[in-house]
Amino acid sequence: MTGLRQARVSDHPALVECVQTWWGDSRTPEQARELSLLLPKLFLQFFSGTSLVREDEAGAVEAFLVGFYSGDNGHEAYIHFVGVDPRLRGQGVARGLYEAFFRRAAEAGRTEVRAITSPGNTGSIAFHRAMGFECEAGDREIDGVPVHGDYDGRGQARVCFRKRLDGVAVTPR
To answer: Which of 50, 88, 126, 154 has the fewest CB within 10 Å, making it most exposed?
Structure first.
């Protein structure tokens, strides 16, 4: 993937701006600002080594993935937040970010990756399924999708995904 690099703490302001701009077409400015709060600076302070940024030739952010390896479960990794410039959506950019993360996680000895989304985010659900994630059984279903009610607090249901990294090619050392 052209222009792909490890994230840096100094990327934080640009990533927040990307979230607020890129999601501005589907949310109010206040909603886009609230969404950017899911990406506090601490994720880059502590997980920049496992997060990725894709830049264009001029150095502007085109896409990013914030993910980390579990400190409690040595076999798991987690993808927390992914953003792609709307002009590049549908061109395999997110797929490339995910595949790069999968390879790096497998090279670090991780055997599965997890992610979550809200039940109403049908695009995210479809994308994760297309990437080989399975929905974990929940305590109820919404539109045929297993959901974990109150996952992030009262009324904050989530769809939880898991993907085994069996067969992910790792770079020979």
So the answer is: 154
Q: Which residues have a Cβ under 8 Å from the Cβ of 26 and sit 6 or more positions away?
A: none
**Is the separation of the CB atoms in 77 and 69 below 8 Å?**
yes
Give the span between the Cα atoms of 1 and 92, in whole angstroms: 10
What's the pTM? Answer: 0.93
Buried b (16+ CB within 10 A) or exposed e, 106-123: beeebbbbbbbbebeeee
Q: What is the DSSP letter of 87?
A: G
Question: How far apart, in whole angstroms, are the C-alpha atoms of residue 108 and residue 141?
Answer: 34
Q: Which residues, in sequence order, are bridge partners of residue 76?
A: 112
Q: For residues 128 and 89, what is the distance between their CA atoms, to the nearest angstrom?
A: 15
pLDDT (0 to 100) of residue 28: 86
Q: What is the pLDDT of residues 83-142, one digit of tens each?
A: 999 999 999 999 999 999 999 999 999 999 999 999 999 999 999 999 999 999 999 999
